[in-house]
Write a structure and sequence with these properties.
Strand content: 5-15%
Number of helices: 18
Radius of gyration: 26 Å
Distance between the termini: 62 Å
Largest sheet: 6 strands, mixed
Structural class: alpha/beta
Number of strands: 13
Shape: elongated
Strand order of the largest sheet: 1-6-5-2-3-4
Helix content: 40-55%
């Protein structure tokens, strides 16, 4: 039988492990944890790599713990960072934690009684920990040579920015997380990105020194696209799991736009599709790349995992809108995501509701003149919210304005004009 390590390797989700004993240990039920940084009130698409790996451990029968870093989030992990980030207040971190917990709950199964999942906040054990206690109970077990030898530390010390003592001490805090979870939950495996190797081994060393026990670390690759851009970045902007920060439509379209060279790897990493189906999609990609069957399947699966079936159907419907299908049931936020790149105009409510479609088309800049707008209607080329207008005397009603905010005009097949109604 395949162990979880075999599965991770097959799915391109394995970078390294701290001990060759781990695959044998994984034949029995383990408790595994991964940490998530509350630097925002929503996780990003890039976090899905670690989160899906944690979920895969659970699907293979292991207990999993998601650690929301309420304490470590107030310091900030320097791993993979070229500069020190702005420190967050405890209030900001607490607010962010609520959003992150909601994100985690979408992916992990908290109803499974045989392979359990839970979320913990490391501020629960650090809140009463004094600085003297940190130095005495944790700091005395670390040696400066090994701390300075961590790749994340060396890179920052050699940079112009340097590294603060707060960031330098971060590895002590993450190591203590592992110790506490070992004591309280019997947790013996920590999961993280490849840039977490130094922090993970700090934890395995601390548990070995204080408890005489062997615990393990597993790292997953840092995923980049074929251009070397870190996964989850779109034109320099992060994509979030919270639909209030990234619309479900934009989320879906991000995966639809995946390049041929990346899509099969993403299917392995970010979906639970069996390998047989992924291999079939790879054959389809090689034989008929123009059909983009693999990209469509990737977008469907990841959107369903993160946003549920309703979210997926909303994204599919929104995509169809661009090809002239009905906008019924879409919210203003969905419309804004769909037509983010379309020309837009702002008109007062009095200049829209109760006014003729011809007048609104001219005021919004869709048509240069009333004559042009009239001819568009007569020729069947004028649409309001993708509904063809056939009456030259038609007026815009209050019900036409989506959520009281937006109206979408279209001339021809793809000449859209978004009207923001204020």
């Amino acid at each position: 039988m395949k162990t979880i390590i075999d599965i991770l390797k097959e799915r391109e989700l394995f970078e390294d492990m701290t001990s060759p004993e781990l695959p044998e240990k994984a034949e029995s039920q383990l408790t595994v944890y991964a940490g998530f940084d509350p630097s925002s009130d929503s996780l990003q698409v890039g976090n899905l790599v670690t989160l899906m790996t944690l979920a895969r451990f659970q699907k293979e029968g292991h207990n999993v713990i998601a650690v929301a870093g309420g304490a470590t989030g107030m310091i900030g992990d320097p791993s993979g960072k070229s500069t020190e980030r702005n420190l967050l207040s405890e209030e900001e971190v607490e607010k962010n934690l609520e959003g992150i917990k909601e994100n985690l709950a979408r992916i992990l199964d908290f109803d499974d009684e045989k392979a359990t999942a839970k979320i913990v906040n490391n501020n629960d054990w650090f809140r009463e920990f004094t600085f003297i206690e940190v130095l005495r109970d944790i700091g005395k077990h670390f040696r400066m040579g090994s701390m300075l030898g961590k790749e994340s530390v060396k890179a920052r010390l050699n940079s112009e920015e340097g590294m603060s003592f707060a960031e330098f001490s971060y590895q002590l805090l993450q190591a203590y997380d592992f110790l506490k979870l070992f004591e309280a939950e019997g947790c013996t495996v920590q999961l993280g990105g490849s840039d977490q190797w130094g922090n993970i081994t700090a934890g395995t060393d601390l548990v070995r020194k204080l408890k005489g026990a062997e615990v393990y670390g597993v790292t997953v690759p840092l995923v980049c696209d074929s251009n070397g851009v870190k996964f989850g970045k779109s034109e320099g902007n992060a994509l979030y799991l919270d639909s209030r920060k990234t619309s479900v439509y934009d989320f879906y379209q991000f995966f639809v736009r995946t390049g041929d060279v990346d899509v099969i790897r993403y299917l392995k990493i970010l979906t639970f599709l069996p390998m047989e189906e992924i291999n079939e999609l790879e054959r389809s990609l090689n034989e008929a790349p123009e059909k983009r069957a693999a990209q469509k399947k990737l977008a469907e699966e990841v959107t369903r995992i993160v946003h549920g079936e309703d979210g997926l159907q909303s994204a599919v419907k929104a995509s169809a809108v661009l090809f002239g299908e009905s906008m019924e049931g879409l919210a203003a936020e969905d419309i804004l995501g769909i037509f983010a790149d379309a020309p837009s105009s702002e008109l007062a409510s009095a200049d829209v509701i109760g006014r003729s479609v011809i007048d609104v088309a001219v005021a919004a800049g869709l048509s240069k003149s009333k004559g042009e707008a009239r001819r568009l209607i007569q020729n069947g080329g004028m649409n309001v919210n993708n509904v063809r207008i056939s009456d030259i005397d038609a007026q815009v009603s209050e019900g036409d304005v989506i959520d009281g905010k937006l109206l979408v005009l279209r001339s021809g097949k793809k000449n859209y004009r978004l009207v923001r109604v204020g």
